[in-house]
Amino acid sequence: MFDFIAMRDRLAEFPTAEMLIGLCLLVLLAFVADFVVRRILTRLILRIVGRAVHDLDALLQPVVRSFTRVVPAIIIHQGISGVPHLSTGAVTLIQNVAGAFMIVAVAIGVGAGLDMANALYVRSPRAHRRSIKGYLQVLKIVIYAIATILVIAALIDRSPLLLLSGLGALAAVLMLVFKDTILSLVASVQLNSNDMLRVGDWIEMPQLNADGDVIDIALHTVKVQNWDKTITTIPTWRMINESYKNWRGMQESGGRRIKRALLIDQTSARFLTEAERDRMRRFLLIDDYLADKAAEMADWNAKLVEAGRDPVNMRRSTNIGAFRAYVQNYLENHPRIRQDMTLLVRQLQPTETGLPLEIYAFTATVAWAEYEAIQGDIFDHLLAILPEFGLRLFQSPSGADFGQLRSPPVMERA
């Protein structure tokens, strides 16, 4: 039988060998503990939690792995004092390093836990309304700052209060170094507390060439994916200091505005004859309008005749007025135009390019493709039916127009 006592007495004659063997056994014990905890216990925890919550094991794995690093550090920290023939200075140094390692492992584990919390929050229905990523990043900065102070205190074997007392003199330097972080923190709090920006909002910020959907709101940056699929990164504090347009109100209202004008050639506007007015009554949308207008003007004109006024004062219908009434009724009967929102057909100030007849209405959808299709169908119809009212669109002359102007043939001399 192997005699351990004789072996120990034999090793006592060689202090260096006994110390090295003690160190090797301690390191081996630490590795075994790390293997048992990290491989067996970690898998068991992940398996239990993974069954409870779908896909949570992938998020929890970095957290558990970081915290399990503490176990071998604890073993070395507590067991190093039992290694024979090791100097007091070496024991203190190794314990300080092991303590610092434990602090770093815990800080990394807490940071990984905050990342997991953010990943779980993103899956919730409230994530598109308020982002907590900026707050979690601030919390991580605080944790890492505290961990740094504790690590330095552990390595130099001094109280952390001594280090904290010296930070007062460095306050100005810290304010300068963390200026952007402080500004971003204040901006992030204001953006979230006032509900000014959410992930998924469509924003426009022309001064930074940003026009697209917000895909990420972090402590220092806001990422916008533009419509050409490029990414614009905006400092968070600029979202408070500078103006931008948020289209969320339009998306939540369920209606998107149409605001476009037809430029009518003003020389084509004229009074309608009796025959033209009767012919236009075949349009169902303006039949009632023409009838009411005719009755109103007949009553007005009859009073003029009774008063013996000149016939020039008589009121008559116009083709542009009939067209404006047609467009109004057309939009009011359109199934894809919101009737509970503003709906106007109005004339704007005449310009050198014609008389603008503006349509101001809202579609019953906010989807971009559907909105453009509805708007295109409306103006396709109006452009095609405009000649029925004897009206023309204003259009600058082109090369084809000038090509139709031919000079008269030159007479040859006999």
Q: What's the alpha carbon Rg, rounded to whole Å? A: 41 Å
Strand arrangement within the widest β-sheet reads: 4-3-2-1-5
Q: In which range does the helix fraction lie?
A: 55-70%
Number of strands: 8
Q: Which percent band covers the strand fraction?
A: 5-15%
Q: Please give the count of helices.
A: 16
Run of helices and strands: HHHHHHHHHEEEEHEHEHHHEEHH
Uncertain segments: none
Report the span from N to C terminus.
146 Å
3D shape: rod-shaped
Largest sheet: 5 strands, antiparallel
Report on the architecture of this protein.
- This protein is an alpha+beta fold and 414 residues long.
- It is built from 16 helices and eight strands.
- It has helices spanning 4-12, 15-52, 56-68, 70-79, 88-122, 133-156, 160-166, 171-177, 179-193, 238-241, 248-253, 274-280, 284-306, 319-332, 368-385, 399-403, and strands at residues 202-205, 210-217, 221-226, 231-235, 245-246, 256-264, 344-347, 355-363.
- A five-stranded antiparallel sheet has the order 4-3-2-1-5, with no helix packed on it. A three-stranded antiparallel sheet has the order 6-8-7.
- β3 (221-226) and β4 (231-235) form a beta hairpin.
- α2 (15-52) runs antiparallel to α3 and α4 (70-79) runs antiparallel to α5 (88-122).
- The model has no long low-confidence stretch (mean pLDDT 81).
